[in-house]
Amino acid sequence: MSYAVKEMFLTLQGEGIHAGRRAVFIRFAGCNLWSGREQDRTSAICRFCDTDFVGMDGPGGGRFPDGAALAETAARIWGDAPREERFAVLTGGEPMLQVDDGAVDALHAQGFTIAIESNGTIAAHPGIDWICISPKAGSEVVQRRGDELKLVWPQDGMDIAALEAWDFANFLVQPMDSDAREENLTSAIAFAMERPRWRLTLQTHKMLGLP
Description:
Blueprint: E1 3-12, E2 22-28, E3 62-64, H1 67-78, E4 87-91, H2 101-109, E5 113-118, E6 130-133, E7 145-153, H3 160-164, E8 167-175, H4 181-194, E9 198-200, H5 204-208
Parallel strand pairs: 2-4, 4-5, 5-6, 6-7, 7-8, 8-9
Antiparallel strand pairs: 1-2, 1-3
Helix pairs in contact: 1-2
């Protein structure tokens, strides 16, 4: 299987439990909850996405013919830093539209710990080391266990009690990045204050001007 990748780059993880950790981000093209075209946003299941995942024209992006090529590029981007610290974040779009044995096995062979950021509508590959699921209201989430449940807030129609019954080690709430960001931040803080099980997470990479 070949892989369509929008971009691949070295940065610091900006969100969640691993915030501040050096990582190679592999952003796969395509999503099953929105086409990525602005004209389709109002009819999409996920209407608040703030990421460009269309095409393969970003830095480090392209069509990779197999898992080995994908992983070798990730290793080259990681550079000379210690191999035992290698950390790759598979994101999108929706990475599980493409992630398979070939990609996972090749990244592991290059020494990477693999994290994924997914909407949870497709079961995560069992070989992934760290699973972060960000559920979207109106979608059918099948991946109901993992390491992080990251709720972008606010979202109308989200059953919080149902989410809390899922098997996740960490429950995170993140204010939605929109024109109402200040109101969303206030609402997310109130959410975490009212529900001690949840922790507030912020998009620190945007604050720092990182990709």
